[in-house]
Every structure is written in C-alpha cells, then in structure tokens.
Design brief:
With 258 residues, the chain is α/β, with parallel strands linked by helices. It is built from eight helices and ten strands. Helices cover 36% and strands 17% of the residues.
C-alpha cells in the first residue's frame, strides 16, 4: 500500500506489548473521552499499552485534542494515502509494534473497559476475539433503531458461511500479531477488516465476548449506502478466497514496518 504518514509518534518511544488501533475521521469531539477511557484500562490493569489514532485527513481539531492530552503513549498518524477504515487499520498494523493488537472504533460505541477481557481470551488460547452485541449478556443501547439492527443482522447472515459467529460485524476485536504473519494478502474493500483478517488468517479458535454497544453521542456515522455496496463486494471476494484460495503469486502483507 503506497501510503505516507505525518506522525506525532516520539522517535525514541519503546514499543508497547499491546497496541490499540483506532481509525478516525472527524472524530475530534470523541478523542478526549476515548483516550481517557483507554487510559483508565491502561492504569487500572498496569498494561503496557499504546494507542494509534489513524486519522484520514480529518481537517478538524483532532491534532489539537491529542496535543492537549500530552500523552507519550498516544500516537496520532495523519494518513495522506487513500481514505477508508480498512486502509487506515492496515496502516495501523504496519506502524504499531505491539505483539497483541486491539482494533476499535472512535465513536465510543465500543467499551474500552472490555479490552482486558478480550486479552484474557487470547491468553486462554483463542486465535481471534470479537466483542459481540449478540451473545448472552451482550446488548445495544436503547434507541439504536430497528432498521440499523435489521441491517446489522442481515449483514451477519450474509457472512455466516464465512464466520459462524453472532457478531463478526462489530469492529471491536483482538488478536496476536502472529495472525498477520499467518494471513494471506489483505485487500479489503469497505469497513469490515476484522472479517477479512479472520478469514484470511484461517483462525479456528474464535471467541466472542459480550459487550454493551453504545449509541454515538458526538460526531456523525460514516456508514453509507456506498459502504453497504462495498460490503457486498467484500463478501464476494472472501467467498472466492474461501472456495478457491489466494490468487497465484499473491504476496503477503508485511506484519510491520521495521
């Protein structure tokens, strides 16, 4: 991927054991609460954790908000390549160094307090862990809306032959970096990078952890009709991969930039 970066990462910062990757686009209003929630987890559980905010040329107050926080473990990467959630997360895989990787959204819908539980599932032997709205004890916020719920369930059913999970769409997941090394070429379209990595790394021990999926209170949802069409194209590609394997000569994406 031909992407260049403008990063606020300190050159001498030591790699953390756990890297949390969050794609952002015009989420300045959520940055402080997001960082504070992750900081609580980091401090309460004495985690060697860093945060990578992969920003898609927001041109808002995102940089100012990060600079106000002044936290050495929070890195803002201002991407200048093609915009998109999946490319942003892939670039996050490249620039981060943690041996454990967590991906979550910037809109505060994913509970940072659940990160330790995701990591405990990895400790117990899982290849891949999803935060799920639909397993027992999982739930969504009131007022989420019937049509949004229906859209989510339909998307899940369409992906069922690829991943027999209750909520592979959640966008909140964790894995060991070795899954990247095991994966065939990652070339997702749209926004479901977790499903892409799950399928192409051939993960077999997959665990779902219940979460409370909160309603966005600031900023604007990036889900659009175009994104839904891209999701269908993404599924088409994954079904072809599942049936026929990787394209001959396809190269693996490097796990990180050394």
């Amino acid at each position: 991927m031909n992407t260049s970066f403008a990063s606020s990462t300190p050159a001498a910062a030591a790699p953390a054991t756990i890297s949390v990757i969050v794609p952002t686009y015009r989420e300045a209003a959520n940055i402080r609460r997001l960082v504070n929630a992750i900081a609580d987890v980091r401090n309460d559980h004495a985690m060697d954790l860093d945060l990578w905010l992969m920003d898609d040329q927001s041109r808002d107050d995102t940089r100012a908000e990060v600079e106000k926080l002044g936290s050495g473990w929070v890195h803002l990467v201002e991407r200048t390549g093609p915009r998109g959630l999946s490319p942003a997360v892939l670039d996050g895989f490249s620039v981060s160094k943690g041996q454990r990787v967590v991906v979550m959204d910037a809109d505060l819908s994913h509970p940072a307090a659940t990160i330790p539980e995701l990591l405990r599932a990895l400790d117990a032997g899982a290849d891949f862990v999803f935060g799920s709205r639909y397993v027992k004890h999982g739930r969504t916020a009131e007022g989420w809306g019937f049509w949004r719920y229906l859209n989510s369930k339909c998307a899940t059913l369409l992906a069922r032959p690829l991943a027999r999970l209750s909520d592979p769409m959640s966008g909140f997941f964790a894995f060991d970096r070795s899954r990247l090394e095991a994966a065939d070429t990652l070339n997702p379209v749209g926004y479901k990078i977790g499903l892409e990595l799950l399928v192409k790394s051939r993960a077999t021990r997959v665990v779902e952890v219940p979460i409370h999926f909160a309603k966005r209170t600031a900023g604007k949802s990036k889900l659009s009709f175009v994104q839904q069409l891209l999701y269908l194209e993404h599924l088409r590609r994954l079904y072809l991969f599942k049936l026929f394997g990787p394209r001959p000569g396809a190269a693996r994406k490097p796990a990180s930039r050394r």
